[in-house]
Write a structure and sequence with these properties.
- The complex is a heterodimer of chains A (295) and B (594).
- With 295 residues, chain A is α/β, with parallel strands linked by helices.
- Chain A has a single domain, classed as HUPs (Rossmann fold).
- Chain A contains nine helices and twelve strands.
- In chain A, the strands form two sheets. In chain A, strands 9-8-7-10-6-1-4-5-12-11 form a ten-stranded mixed β-sheet. Chain A has a two-stranded antiparallel ribbon with strand order 2-3.
- In chain A, strand 8 and strand 9 form a beta hairpin.
- In chain A, helix 2 packs antiparallel against helix 5 and helix 3 crosses helix 4.
- The longest helix of chain A has 17 residues.
- By secondary structure, chain B is an alpha+beta fold.
- Chain B is built from 21 helices and 13 strands.
- In chain B, the strands form four sheets. In chain B, strands 3, 4, 5, 6, 7, 8 and 9 form a seven-stranded mixed β-sheet that branches. In chain B, strands 1-2 form a two-stranded antiparallel ribbon.
- In chain B, helix 2 packs parallel to helix 10 and helix 16 packs antiparallel against helix 18.
- The radius of gyration of chain B is 24 Å and the shape is globular.
- The N and C termini of chain B lie far apart (52 Å).
- The chains are: A alpha/beta (295), B alpha+beta (594).
- Chains A and B meet through helix 5 of A and helix 3 of B.
């Protein structure tokens, strides 16, 4: 009995290596100035999927949404042991916020008909931790966040350990389910030498088209076919293929509006306990509205 | 997420600076295997891309997986179980599993056995990176020369039997040479190899200080002939079955993750490697040369690791109101450490490159159908072989001594904290200590190297280095090196004239001069490199071209060495023989040990 695992991964700027030009004047991240890396917690999600495959068999598919250069993380996924890779790319995806992103990804995930969907808890560029939960809602699947360990897998159900920060919880859920995985869950394996040698040639169609523009000798269809035969063609899906409703994609599908961006220095010296009661929460929300943190 | 390959500017620079094109072409025999094996590259570009990716992967594994376990490995050590089996420290077992899964346990083995067929130059880089994470792990990861020896010298069925398992990481090996009365002097080996009526071979006797003697595949040096000396010895391979007992695990100063075993062979069935009587003189010599390069890589890794702790401390520890690295004495130590690490790295990688060149020429001679190419290779091989024979002990000697100096200096930078087990420096110093001892002591490396220096190889190599192209920015430095070479040749001539004993007595001085000159040329070559790479400057957002930085380093290194060379030369040319003549009077009788 194997499991069909889909791992959602993201290429992010390496925010550990911040240099002078890391931010644009408008306060957004200057992605060109920072090296692109595999979002760290997505590696933990991939590792969990690979462990499931090692133990129970099945297939691991890595999926990312982005420009054609995002195939870097997909190849990286293949090096580490994923069986196939999917790039969701379409100009109409541009300016998607987390809600639109989760909608588009949900369309892609549906095509793959998975037993288990795994995401990192959050990406180090946006730090929202929203896409995983939103995706689960769109797919109408149970979600288990903050996963730290797999306890058991029994064909139609999964039991995992969640880390809630001040304790652990064991949760059982029917499958399919969406899991978001913590960096404390495991130590991601590195790329296998032989897999790297083989899969370094893996490309999506747009990448081959770009090469063909520079080199007339390259026949795009024939090259794609040859790569596909070797299992090295990265699947490339656009919104038409996903049959996505365009009003939920890109700018149109993104309710998030950036009001302003400011540099925040965390200087609070003391902490405040909020009672875990309705009154306590109400009072906290009131306070946050008062100081314009929310609202 | 760390990466011990990517975070090391000097390795990154040398990876581009060294001529890996040539090495890859020779290693892949003009890329003739590309169609046959998935791991075989089509051209130089692909080969180098493969090397880079695998080093990247090892760098990540070393930083994120191996290094965090090294402290526990050191504390835990290995365990000799009641049933005679040995359990590795948990961190070593985990790391070996991870290395096997990363497909890097057959680093240099041919494609046809499932190996990566990478050159030694890249292997040395990998050994350094892994050793920086855990020096003791190198004793298993870095001794793939055991499999390589089988590949070079054993029959095809033995190769088929063992090499696939080595490459997949299913088995590890040990070189089983040392005995209680045969350490540096392996000719004194006494363990018996005998045949039954059907011609099957068996081993009987004791071996001591066997690194990873609990490994599954043992290469054993044994006396197969009824005669004394090296020609009575042959090399055998056997499995560690019920007739091989680990009698004890040594309790030792450092490299606690590496099990050092005493083995008893009780009529153990084995197979002969290659031909009888060539065990020591041909096979073990080859095996040892590979292992010496490995120890040099291990030494580099320890030095890099301990240097980084010291630098971090020197930059953050404040005394007298400033970071201690602002104090002249500490500043100077830091630069000396950094320079000697880059000096050692240059020597080790260039040596590995020459070894690859030697292996490549042998491949042409063995496999090429082009008669002219074979003839040219044979001609070239003569010198390259002698050069590898000189540079290998030089690398082992220089890097291991350097590693000890740097790890002691690191403790010194940390002061009292460095002496405590709270910091890794004390572990690095304990780990470094073995490097000048095993696989031939420094003293024996000097004896091997000085013969090359005085026998013409040194002169020819230095002439080749002097004739290479250098930038105008280092012309004054190459002139100083040329002057130093004159001094070296005078010393060599004088020492030879005084006899072999005198040459060995002043071997260290002669070899030190030769190494200083050779590394001086390497630094000049690096300063003249066409590799464009910017490296960060401390305490600023500025960067500086690596070549410029290397020029500064070359200038400091060569200028400072110029006077040292004169001093060393004066010692050699002194004719002082008190060491021989006055030993008894100066040393007195053997004292009682309380």
């Amino acid at each position: 009995m194997g499991y069909n695992c889909v791992v959602l991964v993201k290429q992010v700027p390496d925010t550990k290596r911040i240099t002078g030009q890391a931010m644009n004047d408008d306060g957004t991240v200057n992605r060109a100035a920072l090296p692109a890396i595999f979002n760290p917690e997505d590696l933990n999600a991939l590792e969990l999927a690979l462990k499931i495959k090692d133990e129970f068999g099945g297939v691991v598919t890595v999926v990312t949404m982005g420009l054609p250069n995002a195939t870097g993380v997909l190849r990286e996924g293949l090096y580490r042991g994923a069986d196939q890779a999917v790039l969701v790319t379409d100009r109409r995806c541009a300016a998607s916020d987390t809600l639109a992103t989760s909608y588009i990804l949900s369309c892609a995930v549906k095509k793959l008909n998975p037993d288990i969907v795994l995401c990192g808890r959050q990406a180090i560029d946006g730090d929202t931790a929203q896409v995983g939960p939103q995706l689960a809602e769109k797919l109408e699947l149970p979600q288990i966040t903050y996963v730290e360990d797999l306890v058991s897998l029994e064909e139609t159900s999964i039991k995992v350990k969640r880390n809630l920060g001040n304790g652990w919880q064991e949760v059982k859920s029917p499958l399919p389910a969406v899991l978001t995985v913590l960096d404390t869950a495991n130590e991601p394996r590195v790329g296998r030498a032989k897999q790297m040698m083989k899969c370094k040639a893996a490309k999506c169609r747009m990448e081959i088209e770009a090469i063909a523009k520079e080199d007339d000798c390259i026949d795009v269809d024939a090259t794609c076919e040859a790569l596909d035969e070797k299992g090295l063609l990265i699947k490339q899906w656009d919104l038409d293929f996903l049959e996505a409703d365009l009003q939920w994609c890109g700018r149109d599908g993104s309710p998030t509006k950036v009001h302003r961006i400011q540099s925040v220095v965390l200087a609070a010296m003391d902490t405040k306990d909020v009672e875990a009661t309705q009154a306590g929460v109400d009072s906290m929300i009131h306070e946050l509205i008062q100081d314009h943190t929310i609202g | 997420m760390g990466n011990f390959y990517k975070d090391n500017d000097d390795i990154q620079f040398l990876f581009q600076h060294m001529d890996l094109n040539k090495v890859s072409r020779m290693q892949e025999e003009e890329f003739k295997h590309a169609a046959e094996f998935e791991t075989a590259p089509e051209d130089e570009t692909e080969a180098i891309q493969n090397y880079n990716m695998v080093l990247d992967s090892i760098g990540e594994l070393s930083a994120d997986f191996i290094a965090p376990r090294s402290e526990d490995v050191d504390r835990e050590g290995n365990t000799l179980n009641e049933d005679g089996t040995v359990s590795y420290a948990a961190g070593i077992a985990d790391a070996l599993d991870a290395l096997a899964k990363a497909d890097v346990m057959g680093f240099t083995l041919p494609h046809r056995f499932g190996g990566l067929n990478f050159p030694n130059t890249v292997y040395s880089m990998a050994i350094e990176i892994v050793s920086r994470a855990d020096a003791s792990l190198m004793n298993i990861f870095g001794l793939q020369g055991i499999a390589e020896t089988i590949n070079f010298f054993a029959d095809e069925d033995i190769k088929q039997n063992y090499l696939h398992d080595f490459a997949s990481g299913k088995v590890t090996g040990a070189m089983v040479l040392t005995e209680p009365d045969a350490g540096s002097d392996l000719q004194a080996c006494d363990l018996k190899a005998f045949q039954d009526d059907n011609g099957n071979w068996y081993l009987h006797g004791v071996k001591r200080f066997i690194t990873n003697g609990c490994g599954e595949v043992l290469l054993v040096l044994a006396r197969s002939e009824d005669r004394s000396g090296g020609l009575g010895l042959s090399l055998f391979v056997c499995d560690r079955g019920p007739t091989v007992t680990v009698r004890r695990l040594e309790d030792k100063l450092g490299i606690h993750g590496s099990p050092t075993c005493e083995l008893f062979f009780d009529n153990t069935p084995c197979q002969l490697i290659g031909e009888r009587q060539r065990g020591l003189v041909t096979y073990v010599m080859s095996l040892m040369n590979g292992a010496r390069i490995g120890i040099a890589g291990q030494s580099m890794g320890i030095a890099e690791a301990t240097y980084r702790v010291a630098r971090d401390y020197a930059a953050s520890r404040e005394q007298f109101g400033v970071a201690i690295e602002k104090l002249p004495a500490v500043r100077d130590m830091m630069i000396e450490m950094k320079t000697s690490i880059e000096a050692g790295r240059a020597l080790l990688y260039e040596t590995s490159w020459i070894v690859d060149h030697e292996i490549g020429l042998n491949k042409i001679i063995d496999n090429s159908e082009d008669k002219d190419a074979v003839k040219a290779a044979k001609k070239e091989l003569k010198f390259i072989k002698r050069l590898a024979g000189m540079l290998t002990p030089m690398s082992k000697y220089f890097c291991s001594e350097m590693s000890n100096t740097v790890s002691y200096d690191s403790i010194q930078i940390l002061g009292g904290s460095g002496y405590m087990r709270d910091y890794a420096c004390e572990r690095h110093a304990r780990d470094a200590r073995i490097t000048t001892i095993y696989e031939g002591t420094s003293q024996l490396q000097v004896v091997a190297a000085v013969r090359g220096v005085c026998g013409g190889t040194g002169e020819k190599y230095l002439a080749q280095l002097a004739a290479a192209e250098y930038g105008d920015n280092v012309k004054d430095l190459t002139a100083m090196l040329a002057e130093g070479t004159e001094t070296l040749l005078e010393c060599a001539k004088f020492a030879k004239g005084e006899g072999i004993e005198y040459m060995d007595l002043y071997g260290r001085q002669i070899v030190d001069i030769a190494i200083a000159l050779i590394i001086g040329y390497y630094f000049c070559s690096q300063a003249s490199s066409d590799v464009e790479m910017e490296v960060a400057v401390a305490d600023s957002d500025q960067t500086v071209p690596m070549t410029k930085r290397k020029e500064v380093m070359a200038r400091r290194y060569i200028t400072r060495n110029a006077d040292k060379i004169k001093t060393l030369a004066a010692e050699v040319m002194s004719g002082d023989r008190t060491t021989f003549k006055e030993y008894d009077a100066l040393i007195g009788p053997v004292p009682e040990i309380a």
